[in-house]
Structures are given as structure tokens and as C-alpha cells.
Amino acid sequence: MSLATSNVFPVSFIEAESLKKTYTPRGASPVHALDGLDLAVPQGTVTALLGPNGAGKTTAVKVLTTLVTPDSGTAVIDGIDVIAHPERIRPIIGVSGQYAAVDENLTAFENLDMVGRLYHLGASASRARARELIELFDLTEAQNRPVKGFSGGMRRRIDLACALVTRPRVLFLDEPTTGLDPRSRLGMWDIITTLVGEGTTVLLTTQYLEEADQLADSISVIDDGKVIAKGTSDELKASIGGQRVELSLVSPDDSTAAREILVRHGSGEPTVTADGRALTVTADDAPAALQRILAEFGSSGIQLFDAGMRRPTLDDVFLKLTGRSATVDDESPATTKKKAKR
Ligand SMILES: Nc1ncnc2c1ncn2[C@@H]1O[C@H](COP(=O)(O)OP(=O)(O)OP(=O)(O)O)[C@@H](O)[C@H]1O
Ligand SMILES: [Mg+2]
């Protein structure tokens, strides 16, 4: 499904073209945080910006949320020029930043109530909205405690809740689930999915491939300040082609010999994990390649711990496009395999 046909609103709600932003820290060489970034997010959809540390994700969000002025390029949200009219953008957007921006000394309830009042919702409407969000984010127990005593996960939740006080039509979420435990992450995904179902347009950044896979209608892979690939999760996986044959060895001493066998039967360079135990290779006809590989392992006496094949994951896409893994822990293909089998 292409971006153009995957939704009923053909016009992009968020549009950025050729955004550039260079930082020149004193005494250091310039950093091109954004180097010609293009984005188009249709209304009522989720677009994920997926990229490694330093790719420019937060800078892109800062530009689109009026916190940073780009050196050049254009950004438009709902037909409003972000750079020329930041004051018209701020009332229609909600932002939950990479680092929670709540008042530490206020309670969860007071933070939400304060945001409502800052946006002139009125006293009783602010309180009512605060109560609604406390419930939605499962913060009832903690609502009267100062935020400074909150855990990281609770902070993420109160921060997102604050971004939703005004029911914004467009929501920017910079790594919304970093630091959340698996249950809280699923809860956050549910909330985001519900908001999108209600018509909210979401741009989120993430380093979790699985998150982009689950939530996003479209994924823009960014690296060095520009989009290096975009499409649905399936399109991106299909774009790199081929299935993967994966093997793990009983002994890393067999790594070199095993690699040579994979070179003969796969297409392209095999990847080998740092410990030398797990190897992966792309193959156009994976079942046939796997059979041939197993036969050669048998005759060479290489002992296998595990062998199998799988379709490409978003991690493979990332690895292929950027030459490195996108996952936070810089996971090896072996760890990725577990994830893919989830
Ligand atoms: N205020 C700043 N001054 C100098 N350099 C900056 C500033 N903000 C960002 N950068 C640099 O710009 C580049 C992009 O940073 P950015 O925060 O946008 O990356 P990111 O993709 O959000 O990374 P992460 O995954 O670590 O959050 C990095 O090299 C960063 O060091
Ligand atoms: Mg960031």
C-alpha cells in the first residue's frame, strides 16, 4: 500500500521540505543536524521517524514544534507556515519531548490542571480534563504526589498526558516509550492508537523498530539529517529483498569456515556477530540455500546450535541502509532474531 492510497485524506497535514539546520558549537566543527529533510504526514495517520542516535530526529521535532528555527527549508502544518507563524501553530499541536518537561514540584493533577489554565480552558474544564487524563494514563494512585518522586515511566505518562490537555489535532512524540517497561509501552501504544482512531495526526520518533512496525502507517528512516528511505514497514522490508538464512554455531572456532559456506550459497556478504557464533546471509531462494548450507555443514563437521530462515525485519532494513543497527542496545543479529520471532 503506498502512502497515497493508505488513507482517505490525500493532503498532507504536516509537510516539511528541504529542512536544514547546522549547529556550530564553540571550538568544534559544524554539525549538520538536518541536511535537507523532507516529510509528509497525511491527516489522521502516524508517521515514524526512525533513526540512530544523532540522526536529527529531535531537531526535526523541534523545528516542527516551533522550538528551533531552521537555517533554510519550509515547514507547514494544516496549511500554516510554521516558521512565519509559530504563534498560530502552538495552539493546534501537542508535544511530548524526549525529556519529560513537567513541573517537578507540582503533583500530577496540578501539572495537568496548570496546563489547562495556561491554555485558558477555565478552572472547572481544566480540572475535569485533568481527572480524565489521570484515569486514562493510570495515574490515579499517584495523582496527588509531586512529580519529583515519580519513576521514569510515570514521568513519560504524565508528560504525554500534559500534551493531550487541549486535545491537539497533531501530536509530536519524541521517543514516547523510551524507558517504559513492556506493560507501560503496550499501554502507550494503545493510547496512541486510540488517539489516531479519533483523527489525531501523529509524528513520532523512535529507535524501536518494533514500535515503528506496530504503530506507523509510514516510516521515514533518517540518518545524518535526511530521509534515506520511506514507506510502510512492508514496503521497506520488501525493498531490501530476499529472505535471511540464520545459523548459530556451537563453537565460535568454526566461524570462519561457516562464513565461507554462507558466502557460497547466499547472496551478498554474510553478517557475523561479534562473538562469532551467529551468522546471517541473504538468499533469494532461502529453503534451497538452507538445505545446501546444512549439507555442507554436515560434511565439514561444523556443529550447529540452531538454523532457520526468516523474512527481513526492519532491523535488516536499517542495517542495509545505514550499515549499522538502529536498536538502542546496538543489538546483534542474534538478538534481533529473537525479536523477529516474537
Ligand atoms: N543545541 C545543539 N547544539 C549543538 N549540536 C546539537 C544541538 N542539538 C542537536 N545537536 C546535534 O545535532 C545532531 C542531531 O541531534 P538530534 O538530537 O536531532 O538527534 P536524534 O536523532 O534525536 O538523536 P537521539 O536518538 O540521540 O535522540 C547530533 O549530532 C547532535 O549532537
Ligand atoms: Mg532525540
UniProtKB/TrEMBL annotation:
It comes from the Bacteria. It is a peripheral membrane protein. It holds the Pfam family DrrA1-3_C. PROSITE patterns: ABC_TRANSPORTER_1, ABC_TRANSPORTER_2. Keywords: Antibiotic resistance, ATP-binding, Cell membrane, Membrane, Nucleotide-binding, Translocase, Transport. Residues 14-249 form the ABC transporter domain. It is found in: Cell membrane. InterPro entries: AAA+_ATPase, ABC_transporter-like_ATP-bd, ABC_transporter-like_CS, ABC_transporter_ATP-binding, DrrA, DrrA1/2-like_C, P-loop_NTPase. One of its GO terms (cellular component) is plasma membrane. SUPFAM superfamilies: P-loop containing nucleoside triphosphate hydrolases. The keyword Aminoacyl-tRNA synthetase does not apply. Its main location: membrane. The keyword Heme does not apply. One of its GO terms (molecular function) is ATP hydrolysis activity. GO terms for biological process: daunorubicin transport; doxorubicin transport; response to antibiotic. Belongs to the ABC transporter superfamily. Drug exporter-1 (DrugE1) (TC 3.A.1.105) family. NCBIfam families: drrA (TIGR01188). This is ABC-2 type transport system ATP-binding protein. It comes from Salinibacterium xinjiangense.
